[in-house]
Amino acid sequence: VVVVVGGGTMGRDVAAIARRGGFHILLVEPDAKQRESLQQYIADSSNGSGSATPTPTVEVLASLAEVGDCGRSWTDVRMAIDCVPEVLEIKQQLFAQLAELTSFGGNDSGTILASNSSSYPISAIMQGVCKHTHPAVWARSMNLHFFMPAHLVPCVEVVKGTHTAERTVDAAYEMMLQCKMKPVRVNKEIAGFLGNRLQHALLREALYLMDEGVATAEDIDTVVRWGFGLRYLGGKKKKKKKKKMMNERERERERKKGRILVLCVSGDRQRDCYVHTLHTHPFACLLPIPSQQR
Q1: Distances 39 to 132, 152, 181, 227 between C-alpha atoms, Å
Q2: H helices of the chain, where?
């Protein structure tokens, strides 16, 4: 069982990811109108993505207090994921509540408490939890940062906090692999973690080049999209064999199947190409094929 707290844009996608890994989902969302569409959205977002058989259930709850009312126990919960608004006080209150719910009678449930926050490290969030009262809770708390749209972007950052136990990081990493994600370990707390720091480094340089009059925004965008960006999009190269370029009718047929043709950047050997599906490269659908490369 995985509990996801918050059924907004990120929370519903995270729930779809966990369902894809075969986990039963308890999604907590206090807004009644929001709850109406959650089950169908999660089913649509996780179908066809290798989810387990039989299909995991999705239960939408109004509060954490209802977890025990639906025949589940916190001892059954492998992980609880915070997807509430990015407000530190709200997150601190949530983790204090989760600490109480997952520590009872002197025993510890072992439930991993993860925050999807990219702004606040787990050490800041856990300031709302008394370390002396719940020492084991700190050891099983961490950041688990997804990238939007979470159910399409495979990467997820598994971040070790100041007091996070190594076994917690290992368990979360394995769970993400089970969910068909591409987890990366961030071995210490740092502002922005890994992905955002790399992204912002590129953004800073792009803004500098614009301010200095080196290039226009359009040309900088072209360099990223149709220069080195394509190298990162590329997957394993197919076996070398001569193959004629697709004509427009064949290209259209591939597009309708959810595939996109990406020309290989390797000298003038344009006959070598990659054909990616949305499952292997979700962002491929966002990259049109420039007419000059057809």
Answers
A1: 39, 18, 21, 40
A2: 9-20, 32-35, 38-46, 88-101, 122-125, 135-139, 166-178, 195-211, 217-223, 229-233, 248-256
Report residue 172 as tokens. 């979360």
Give CA–CA dist 6/44, Å, rounded: 18
Give 185's DSSP letter: E
Total Cβ atoms within 10 A of residue 7: 25
Read off the pLDDT of residues 243-261 as tens digits, 9 standing for 90 and up: 455 566 666 666 555 544 4
Each residue of 257-284: pLDDT tens digit? 554 444 333 333 333 343 333 334 434 4
Helix axes 9-20, 38-46, angle to 10 degrees: 50
Q: Distance between CA atoms of 153 and 116, rounded to whole angstroms?
A: 14
pTM: 0.75
Closest CA to 1 of 253, 194, 175, 228: 175
Dihedral sign from CA coordinates of 121, 123, 124, 125: positive
42 to each of 32, 58, 182, how far by Cα in Å?
A: 16, 8, 20
For the chain, percent of residues with pLDDT exceeding 90 = 53
b/e sequence 17-36, b meaning 16+ C-beta within 10 Å: bbbbbbbbbbbbbeeeeebe
**pLDDT of 145 over the 90 cut:** yes
Q: What are phi and psi of 51, to 5 degrees?
A: -70, 160
